[in-house]
Design brief:
Blueprint: E1 2-3, H1 12-32, E2 38-39, H2 41-46, H3 48-59, H4 74-78, H5 82-94, E3 102-107, E4 113-118, H6 121-139, H7 155-169, E5 173-178, H8 188-197, H9 203-213, E6 215-217, E7 221-223, H10 235-252, H11 266-273, E8 280-285, E9 288-293, H12 296-314, E10 324-327, E11 333-335, E12 338-345, E13 350-356, H13 358-373, H14 381-402, H15 408-430, E14 435-438, H16 446-449, E15 455-461, E16 464-467, H17 491-500, H18 516-525, H19 533-545, E17 562-566, E18 582-586, H20 587-593, H21 602-623
Parallel strand pairs: 1-2
Antiparallel strand pairs: 3-4, 5-9, 5-10, 6-7, 8-9, 11-12, 12-13, 14-15, 15-16, 17-18
Length: 624
């Protein structure tokens, strides 16, 4: 049994160490075949630092502005008193009764409707608190080739695994699995039992999750007896938990089959091939999965066996129409928006050829055309540039997702001309100064556009040429296979991730910025509305951006000498605490900014006067 020795968390670093330890213990238990047992989780969820981290996470999520059934968004939380927010969340965790979720319908690319359930912002924060504490325990036990809804994993990794199997084994018979209405058919009792089996022995936490699952839907029902609402923060994690029993059952039949003798690498599978077992390899991304085996006969037998197991053990069904058996040598399988087919012979098997699912791509292009045409209606320059940025984000998102396809450039090029001319016409109608400019001459998306001389439609904004990017700026990109040691819950795992992403880690936030005592002192003594919740959350972001140094004198900052200065304190409450309005300065320099005394140190005189001038100018504007 793992009992957390000290449930009081001082800062974010301490929380991270606890999460790392939960992951380590759960992984160790799994490897040694020991039962999982974790208690004291409720107090970790209740911690002020956990709540702060949850709000940080939600704040950076684009759905944070979406209203729940009580019409609150993250802004209502950020602009509230610090202590009151913490007390409110803690009180509601202790007596958790979720509010009704708001139904939102999203039109899917196939014309069908996906029903989302949007919890209130308060319920989202509580769900995130539970997810933060529970996820490392679950992550340590999840199947290694399950890639959906998991940190540091993406669809390309699952596609790479699918391509790797025929290459190494020569197996080409595939079950393309699809579960009928998966999220809507999750059985609550089975899910809670699965959480218990995976080590969540704190009954208070299980009760919170049970209440989350039963949350009613506004204008539909007061309680929900079946399913996990899509739209809930914790639903993806719970969906993976639910299918973990299925994953474990399948891999015990072949990939992780226990043998009498110890084998290394391929020798184990060579030995297994001599038995009467049906060989297969399995890859899952959320509720989409494929199983690759060596013959049609085995594929049919496995499909029947899986169908019966799912119905008997998880009370869910395979979609008969969508669950197909395909020979990749003759026909491409469809997986996550790609068509995958085997090509030339390799040493042990076959290479694979991947292409974009043409039907899906056409629907995406249709949606993109509609989005671009809306550009015509914007009159304000700022709105136009904002819309251009959004269109660029969509185009780059399409390119980056489909760059795993072998012929991505050829397929996207087919739609490039019509898309780019739609962009030009929409810009021309909106802005008379629209013109064609070489991509490497524009002032946005420089890291992409710098490589191309192809012309793109642009408009002038504040002496800069802002262009709309093109689909043809794409090329095939090989994805590396998942390193199973990569995880957010170990030092080694985080280092592997940073190396893969080629990201330098940000300066670690000063732990004291998240120290409960310091935050409490500041919140208690400063009742001015400008020092609201958003201010405390954004101070570390400004600190990291400023590389932990004073913006005036350049000295190293620690909590005891750090002040966060409002460049323009007269902005509206919704803007005054944004990161670009905050500057990290030392105590002495901060005093000088707000003083009218002459500055004796020449080195900092110019910078102090600059910040003073901002204050005077904005004060004058307010007075005027």
């Amino acid at each position: 049994m793992v009992q957390i020795p000290n449930n009081h968390i001082e800062n974010e670093k301490e929380l991270r160490n606890i999460l790392d330890n939960l992951y380590f213990k759960a992984k160790e238990n799994k490897e040694q075949g020991l039962k999982q047992k974790f208690n004291g989780l409720f107090e970790l969820i209740l911690s002020e630092v956990t709540i702060l981290t949850a709000i940080h996470n939600i704040k950076s999520n684009k759905g944070s502005k979406t209203k729940g059934s009580n019409n609150e968004t993250i802004d209502d939380i950020l602009q509230s008193d610090y202590n009151k927010v913490i007390e409110r969340i803690q009180k509601n965790i202790r007596n958790y009764r979720p509010k009704l979720v708001r139904r939102k319908e999203i039109l899917k690319s196939n014309g069908k409707v996906r029903k989302l359930g949007i919890p209130t912002i308060e319920d989202r924060i509580i769900q995130e608190c539970v997810r933060i504490i529970m996820e490392p325990i679950m992550e340590a036990q999840f199947y290694k080739h399950s890639y959906g809804f998991r940190p540091m994993r993406n669809p390309h990794m699952s596609l790479e695994r699918v391509a790797d199997i025929p290459f190494k084994t020569g197996y080409t018979w595939v079950i393309e699995g699809d579960i009928k209405g998966y999220f809507d058919t999750i059985n609550h009792r089975i899910l809670i039992k699965q959480l218990w089996n995976m080590g969540i022995k704190d009954k208070r936490v299980l009760m919170i999750i049970k209440n989350m699952l039963k949350a009613g839907i506004m204008n539909e029902c007061d309680t929900n007896e079946l399913g996990a609402p899509q739209g809930g923060i914790i639903s993806p994690l719970l969906a993976n938990v639910y299918l973990t029993a299925f994953d474990n059952w399948l891999v015990r039949e072949w990939e992780e089959k226990k043998t009498q003798h110890q084998y290394t690498g391929r020798h184990k599978y060579e030995a297994l091939k001599k038995t009467k077992l049906k060989p297969f390899y399995y890859v899952r991304y959320a509720d989409d999965w494929v199983l690759i085996t060596n013959s049609r006969e085995n594929a049919n037998k496995l499909k029947y066996k899986i169908k019966k197991w799912l119905e008997s053990n998880l009370k869910i069904e395979l979609s008969e129409g969508k669950t197909k058996i395909t020979n990749m040598k003759k026909k491409a399988i469809k997986f996550l928006g790609f068509d995958i087919k085997t090509g030339k012979k390799s040493t042990f098997g076959y290479t694979t050829i991947s292409s974009i699912d043409e039907k899906r791509l056409k629907l995406k292009m249709k949606d993109l055309q509609k989005d671009i045409r809306r550009l015509r209606v914007y009159i304000n320059d700022n709105d136009t540039i904002n819309k251009i940025n959004k269109i660029n984000s969509i185009i780059r998102g399409i390119v980056q997702y489909y760059e795993w396809a072998t012929r991505v450039n050829v397929q996207l090029k087919k739609y490039d001309n019509s898309i780019v001319y739609t962009c030009y016409k929409a810009l021309k109608k909106n802005k008379k100064n629209a013109k064609w400019v070489s991509a490497n001459k524009v002032n946005n998306l420089i890291s992409i556009h710098d490589k191309y001389t192809t012309q793109i439609p642009t408009t002038e904004y504040m002496d800069s040429q802002i262009g709309i990017t093109r689909l043809c700026f794409s090329k095939f990109k090989k994805t590396s296979k998942k390193n199973q040691k990569e995880t957010p819950y170990s030092i080694e795992g985080r280092e592997i991730y940073q190396k893969r992403m080629k990201k330098k880690p940000l300066i670690e936030r000063a732990d004291e910025l998240f120290n409960n005592k310091l935050s409490g002192i500041i919140a208690y003594h400063r009742q001015n509305t400008i020092y609201n919740f958003e201010y405390y959350l954004n101070r570390p972001y400004a600190f990291n951006r400023d590389k932990g140094k004073c913006k005036i004198c350049g000295c190293d900052l620690v909590a005891s000498n750090l002040n966060t200065h409002h460049i323009n304190p007269y902005l509206p409450i919704t803007e005054v605490n944004k990161v670009n309005n905050l500057a990290s300065v030392c105590v002495e320099c901060h005093k000088l900014i707000h003083s009218s005394k002459p500055i004796e140190i020449k080195k900092i005189e110019k910078k102090i006067n600059k910040y003073r001038s901002y204050l005077k100018q904005n004060n004058k504007n307010m007075a005027g």
